[in-house]
Fold Carbohydrate kinase family protein.
Amino acid sequence: MVLSGRGVDVVVAGHICIDVIPAIQEKKEAMLTPGKLIDIGPALISTGGAVSNTGLALHRLGLKTRLMGKIGDDLFGNAVLKALEEYNEELSEGMIVASGEHTSYTLVISPPNVDRIFLHCTGANDTFSADDVKEDSLKDARLFHFGYPPLMKRMYEDSGTELECLLSAVKEQGLTVSLDLAKPDPESPAGHADWRTILRKAIAHVDVFLPSFEEILFMLRPEIYEKFTNVQQTNVLLSFANVQLLSLLTDELIEMGAAVVGLKLGEHGLYLKTSRNSARFQTMGFCSPPADKVEGWVNRELLVPCFQVRTAGTTGAGDCTIAGFLAALLKGLTVEEALISAVGVGAFNVEKADAVSGIPSWDMLRARISNGWLQQEIRFELFGWRYQEHLQVWSHDNP
């Protein structure tokens, strides 16, 4: 497909799929028991994955966005293109349609007050390669965001050589590079990959790294992850996310080369740590912080709680949180404003059952924040931290 040539602010590439989300009105015990019939409501069918969730959220926030996911030339693939075109006809132009391949899909089982279960087919995402990202597709863009390499076979096999090749080629074009993860099934080939090696190679070319706490704990500290899951009898481990462990994980990722590392903490908010090296921010590419704000990004350790909302669903909440952060970065805002924008977009997301229909314009987001939107209480021990009331974040002053 020939691109229209329109200028874009951001390219969002990586994993995309069709999400099928049945309406489940109440928690059901033993939902997947063989032979059991469960009465549920209509299914919501929408695009999912990082390309759709983060990309469409950025589009709804008013950023000029190009989406770059790989789909098959099948019924689900046609549905993906149609769904994107309903937002804007140009949003389907950057999509890669692979002849003879299958489009990825996910069944999302999301009972109220229970973490989601995903039944996932990776499809054409597994063949996504560095060659799929053409130089022309990056023209005029300032930021490149790549999402979910653990669900894309070419990206994690061979110790992440293809992922490193892709991100280094983008970085050479001068773009700011952002990366997000997904947690693979521990028993799958992706779950057995050497993620410390993969990340060390990839993050050398990444400016902003925004995984979840549980994803990065699984990849960098598998022994701790296993210990916590044995204690909890679940992989929902946010109760163990104390600031000491968060700092330990982010320090290692900054040492690998990232300028900014944010760990998504679900309902607990977003934790952020940045490089001590001010020169690192001058190498962030087209979205380097403005000269009058750059010192405010250097050597920071911040924690922002979520805003108070009535939750309808959590599908895509992390991806939309990332969209809020990247939008602020693209607009040249302060690190505190980026954090507040991130959890603000995440809060709008969970007010709807699907991933992106709740995302507002940028002006609507800023207006709600400015009008005294209440935040959740912090659930961490924060000795030595201070609350920046006018900025709505907690700050730890590093020596």
In short: Residues 133 and 337 are 31 Å apart (CA to CA). Confidence is low (pLDDT under 50) at residues 1-5.
